[in-house]
Amino acid sequence: MVYAILVCHAEMNAIMNKNSADVKGCTIYVALFPCNECAKLIIQSGIRKVVYASDKHASKKSTIASKRLLEMAGVECCQYEPKRRQVVIDFDVIDRSGLSQLPDSPPRQSPVPGPQPEPADCADSVRRNLSALMVEQAGDQGL
Ligand SMILES: [Zn+2]
């Protein structure tokens, strides 16, 4: 299996691309119980707890080794037990109910003669919408 040596596991990706200085004392949430290579990274990074959804590879040597490594390092491991078996995301409900997470668009203005403003690029549009959203949220909090 060539893919096995070419891919970067999710645990490595999460640890290497974290949004903090380090992950010492943190908990990592994973879909599958980490393999032995990821267990080494988890231990070396200082993560203290692993929460996993599935242990379907429990009989594999890599998983057995992983459990032994994590146990020896004192990393707590526990299986996530969801209260619901599934979550359904219905993207059509947004169109049907008229719900939107974006602020209302400003009313269209009729074209005015004279020089027209430069069309805003996408980043400007996102910045304006974000500013409007932040103002709305600040208003909601009475700020
Ligand atoms: Zn792995």
Automatic annotation (TrEMBL):
Residues 104-118 have a biased composition (Pro residues). Residues 98-123 are annotated as: Disordered. Coiled coil: none annotated. The keyword Hydrolase applies. Residues 1-88 form the CMP/dCMP-type deaminase domain. It comes from the Eukaryota. GO terms for cellular component: cytoplasm. GO terms for molecular function: dCMP deaminase activity; zinc ion binding. Pfam families: dCMP_cyt_deam_1. Its EC number is 3.5.4.12. Keywords: Hydrolase, Metal-binding, Nucleotide biosynthesis, Zinc. Signal peptide: none annotated. PROSITE patterns: CYT_DCMP_DEAMINASES_1, CYT_DCMP_DEAMINASES_2. Belongs to the cytidine and deoxycytidylate deaminase family. This is dCMP deaminase. It comes from Amphibalanus amphitrite (Striped barnacle). The lineage of its organism: Eukaryota, Metazoa, Ecdysozoa, Arthropoda, Crustacea.
